[in-house]
Amino acid sequence: MKRKRSGQRGHTPAVSGFTLIEVMIAITLFVVALGLLLGGIRYTTRAWDAGERVGRESSDLQLAQRVLVDLAGHAFPLTGSGPAGTRYLFSGGPKRLRFAAFLPPYPGQGGLYLLELYIETTERGDQLWLKRRLFDPRTPPEAQLAGAEARLVAESGTPLRFGYAAGRQEEPPLSWRDHWDEGAAPPALIRLSSGDQDDGHWPELVVRPVIDMDGSCLSPALGGLCRWKLQ
Hints:
The protein is α+β, with helices and mostly antiparallel strands and 231 residues long. The protein contains 2 helices and 12 strands, in the order αβββββββαβββββ. It has one domain. The strands form 3 sheets. Strands 1, 4, 5, 6, 7 and 8 form a 6-stranded antiparallel β-sheet that branches.
């Protein structure tokens, strides 16, 4: 009788694993899935940014229109007398507009104000700013606005400019000017336009000052502030 040796070697089981080809396929699929995920994130981000930009531009346009209607639309034909005769406190250029207007008592103090709308150009586009100061007939207009606080009204991705016309909007063709002579009677129409309207940016904002005469003003001797003595 033969005895079985306890030290006899048996069969070694095979070790299971991934081949090199399977690893490469898995890596490729992972890279493709990651690319699709990142592409979706970028698309969502661009769509979000575009929607936010459109909303911001629409808000800026509405705010600029409201400021023009409420302020420039109610420009008051303030006059002053001096060596050169009677002059109006109104001056306009392509990037700056200065005039007087009555403001309501809310949110600040009501009364006759000296206002200035001006445009500044930055790397991101043009900005519309506003300065205002309660009118003082004893101080030159330039000195009054020198220390006034400037407030940002709106931003535009395209160039902005003011325009002025002496005719009526319903009587074309209108002759728009980039400059309005300082001291001359205020224009019949004031315009804020964008230089690139065809690309879907700001349309023309046109306002007509409600008050076009100052015959009802009291003279300074009677306490009126519609006329002042030029220095």
